[in-house]
Amino acid sequence: MEGSIDVALVKEFYANLYVPGDKPPKHVRVRGHLIKFDVDSLKTFLETPIVLEPGETDRGRTRIK
Fold it and tell me: pLDDT tens digits for 15-61?
């Protein structure tokens, strides 16, 4: 159903997200799938352009085309 939220899926995402003492996560396993959610992946998914401050470069980042 479009617009609905699978609460169980969201809970599983957050339950698998936190690993004590580890670096901030950049991926999480949900129902057997590895979900990547680094800055570039989130910006691509949300279709958000990279906004740079004056003097910043976009080295190492991808742009949405």
Answer: 888 777 767 777 888 999 988 877 778 788 788 877 778 877 766 55
> What distance, in Å, lies between the first and last C-alpha atoms of the chain?
29
Q: Residue 29 corresponds to which tokens in the numbers above?
A: 């396993």
Find the domain containing 27 and state its range. Answer: 1-65
Q: How many independent structural domains does the chain possess?
A: 1
The DSSP bridge partners found for residue 35 are: 28
Pairing of strands 33-36, 27-30: antiparallel
Strand partners, 34: 29
How many residues are recorded in the chain?
A: 65
Instruction: Give the whole-angstrom CA distance, residue 37 versus residue 16.
Output: 13
- CA 11 to CA 31: how far, in whole Å? 11
Q: What pTM was estimated for this model as a whole?
A: 0.53
